Amino acid sequence: MNQKPMLTAQDLAERFGVSIYTVYRLTTKPNGLTGYRVGRRIRFKAEEVDAYLEAQAIKPVEDAEVVQIRRFQYKPGMKVVSL
After folding, report:
1. Name one GO molecular function term (predicted).
2. Which among 5, 51, 60, 61 counts the fewest CB atoms within 10 Å?
């Protein structure tokens, strides 16, 4: 059986540039990282970490999808209604 070694939370923290607690928090979110308990520690499969990163990628927006938002401009004499 030729399995790749599993990654620790410390490995992922260094790889992502975040704290270990952030890595653990990502395991509690829906669609977050999948961790495996090995003894008292949580380990992560490298393939699943890569798949998680791909799922979190921000896709570029095409020009047709860009919507300009018109800013409200107050003019003297306008009624202001608070909600």
Report:
1. DNA binding
2. 60
